[in-house]
From TrEMBL:
One of its GO terms (molecular function) is metal ion binding. Belongs to the bacterial solute-binding protein 9 family. InterPro entries: AdhesinB, Bact_metal-bind_prot9, Lipoprotein_PsaA-like, ZnuA-like. This is Zinc ABC transporter substrate-binding protein. SUPFAM superfamilies: Helical backbone' metal receptor. Pfam families: ZnuA. One of its GO terms (biological process) is metal ion transport. It comes from the Bacteria. The keyword Transport applies. PROSITE patterns: PROKAR_LIPOPROTEIN (PS51257). Residues 1-24 form the signal peptide. Keywords: Signal, Transport.
Length: 313
């Protein structure tokens, strides 16, 4: 059932069958919860999701190290090897090219792609969906940042519970129950965002990179990303001018900086326009500077800063 790890264990144990510990991954060990599934998640939100669904029946590791900006991260040989050894590789296609390559080469049918259940229906051109919202997006780039919409996270959670159940039928009821619990928490979070952002003086959200399209879409905000769909430490002069013009034109009072890239760009734009700098975390990885220790805390911190920056009552 736990075929990937089973194969690896079989190889590692060949010729040393008498040694204690061999075969522990198949159910009798105490090293990983109840000796359950090994799950390699490509970056933080999927790691968190994996932990919620697996519960005590699996061990989740992140391929992208903590505190690293994931978009352009190149996996190390050890991280590539992890995609070959894990029972399940949870990833998001067309988000991290290095992960896509490793999954294509190593993971086979053990790969779980969150893109399908997340229903990535936002398309961008030039990093800005809102400027092309005239039905001509057909050739745009798909926005990967689904985790800022709690209900899309819940949908991915349900699909992941099914995938874990297929790999480990014995615990199907637990995975299904964990997904239901998660959906309940995420539904509550969705309600907090909807209520918290219902009455705001400004609906224009100026961000570092365009990571908040699904959030804007879910709660009736309009995102203006200074960079495109990926962070850029040195946006073009045109991008900076576009941002300052947008802020002045729409009376925007806040510019949101990120946690995994330098705040210099947001600070420059804020200084030129008199806007305030607040934090809107793309939640692409945790650092010591993060305003919380898990997905739910970071979402709550984002909501608090959004309510300040958008002047919500
Ligand atoms: Zn991003």
């Amino acid at each position: 059932m736990v075929s990937g790890r089973g194969r690896a264990s079989a190889l590692a144990c060949a010729g040393v069958l008498a040694l204690a510990g061999c075969g522990a991954a198949n159910g009798s060990g105490s090293d990983t919860a109840d000796g359950g599934l090994t799950i390699a998640a490509s970056f933080y939100p999927l790691q968190w999701l994996g932990e919620q669904i697996a519960g005590t029946h699996g061990t989740v590791t992140s391929l992208t190290p903590p505190g690293v900006e994931p978009h352009e991260y190149e996996l190390t040989p050890g991280e590539v090897a992890a995609t070959a050894e894990a029972d399940i590789v949870v990833y998001l296609s067309a988000y991290q090219p290095s992960v896509d390559a490793a999954v294509d080469e190593q993971a086979g049918d053990r790969a779980f792609d969150a893109a399908g259940p997340a229903d990535l229906d936002l398309l961008y051109q030039d990093g800005h969906a809102e400027e092309h919202a005239d039905g001509t997006h057909a050739e745009g780039v798909r926005d990967p940042h689904f985790w800022h919409d709690p209900m899309r996270m819940a949908d991915v959670g349900d699909a992941l519970a099914e995938a874990l159940s297929r790999a480990d039928e014995a615990h199907r009821a637990d995975y299904t129950a964990n997904a239901a619990d998660l959906r309940e928490q995420l539904t509550a979070l969705n309600g907090e965002f909807r209520d918290g952002l219902a009455r705001c003086a400004s609906r224009d959200v100026v961000t570092g990179h365009s990571a908040f399209g699904y959030l804007a879409d879910a709660y009736g905000l309009r995102q203006f990303g200074i960079s495109g769909l990926a962070p850029d430490e040195e946006p073009s002069p045109g991008a900076l001018t576009g941002a300052t013009d947008f802020i002045r034109e729409h009376g925007v009072r806040a510019v949101y900086a990120e946690t995994l890239v330098s705040p210099a760009v947001a600070e420059t734009v804020a200084r030129e326009t008199g806007a305030q700098v607040l934090i809107l975390d793309p939640i692409e990885g945790l650092t010591d500077a993060s305003q919380g220790t898990d997905y739910l805390e970071l979402m709550h911190a984002n909501l608090a800063d959004l309510r300040t920056g958008q002047q919500c009552s």
